[in-house]
Design a protein that fits this description.
eight-stranded mixed beta sheet; 8 strands
């Protein structure tokens, strides 16, 4: 199956960098100072702006939607490689990075609407190749369903799936009901996110337990300057609210939205990149727990295979050593 050159380059860029990061003892550093401040703030509605970072020239434009509350800097190694061949744009969703706080739920439908407004306001014309990592994978699929004439290809990088929550629940050794699974697997994280929003309202005190719980570990690939900028935006209420809202919606409203819109993509080029299977743990683990971990991976990889099968030109690639 022939893959368009721009899509092949993108897949190679993501795959090579992912594998390299798994194997390297000394990480490659993202030190472009542009990631330490807004790149381009574009108004998507009165008084509300989103940050977008576009590099390169050419068509189709590659549009990247990152994982849960991830900023543009998370693509700082991939974007330059793709920009050598065509235009590529990463952006910060509402409340994330340097974008203004959101005024509505962080659901896939609202994210797609924001992104479509952003591209129009920034004069980034279709056609687009959409790239979605994790939660972004659900968002770009919905975008392609809502605006099919504007999308000519997709790369999904370890994408979240609207059926994965139920898939994990069905593999639960404790056989929890849907309500029990939510209480066990979902609510504890949401409870913490609500506490983080309240703490942001009062102002975080560096070094406190709540500050540590609400601040995410920095990628070692980021320079000290970018890490400092990331630490600052993580303390904002808008970011903490975005984190809460995206987590609240991903396997509830967003999953329902994507599931309702789900249909085949015809012969649109589609590549699904899946992380390699789990390695045997270094610490001792019971055979039952190891079998459960492997079953979870097989379920997850199977959902990725089903996404690849939604296009006549769909391919799933398991990226080694990731």
């Amino acid at each position: 199956m022939r893959m368009p050159p721009f899509l092949k380059l993108l897949v190679l860029a993501v795959g090579m960098l992912s594998s390299a990061h798994a194997a390297e003892s000394e990480p490659v550093v993202i030190d472009d100072p542009i990631y330490a401040h807004p790149q381009r703030l574009v108004e998507v509605e009165s008084g509300r702006r989103l940050n977008i970072h576009c590099t390169g020239n050419g068509s189709p434009a590659v549009i990247i939607d990152a994982g849960l509350t991830e900023p543009t800097s998370s693509w700082g190694l991939v974007q330059p490689m793709v920009a050598a061949k065509t235009m590529v744009c990463s952006y910060d969703r509402a409340g994330v990075g340097f974008s203004d706080a959101g005024q509505r739920a962080g659901s896939s439908a609202n994210i797609v609407d924001d992104l479509h407004r952003l591209l129009a306001a920034a004069a980034i014309k279709p056609p687009y190749v959409l790239v979605g990592h994790s939660y972004g994978g659900m968002n770009v699929r919905l975008f392609a369903h809502v605006y099919p004439s504007e999308v000519v290809g997709m790369v999904l990088v370890d994408p979240s799936h609207e059926d994965q929550r139920e898939g994990y629940r069905k593999l639960d050794p404790e056989k929890r009901t849907s309500e029990q699974w939510d209480a066990y697997a979902v609510e504890p994280s949401l409870k913490l996110r609500r506490e983080c929003v309240s703490a942001a309202d009062s102002g975080f005190t560096p070094g406190t337990d709540i500050h540590k719980k609400c601040s995410f570990p920095q990628y070692p690939q980021l320079s000290a300057e970018i890490q400092a900028a990331t630490a600052r935006f993580q303390l904002r209420r808008g970011f903490q609210q975005a984190q809460l809202s995206e987590e609240e919606n991903i396997f509830r409203a967003s999953s329902e939205q994507v599931r309702a819109a789900r249909r085949r993509f015809g012969d649109m080029p589609l590549v699904v990149l899946t992380a390699s299977p789990p390695l045997p743990p270094k610490d001792p683990i019971t055979p039952e727990k190891w079998a459960h971990r492997q079953a979870r991976y097989q379920m997850w990889a199977g959902l990725h295979a089903s996404l690849a099968a939604s296009s006549l030109r769909g391919v799933q690639r398991v990226v080694p050593e990731t």
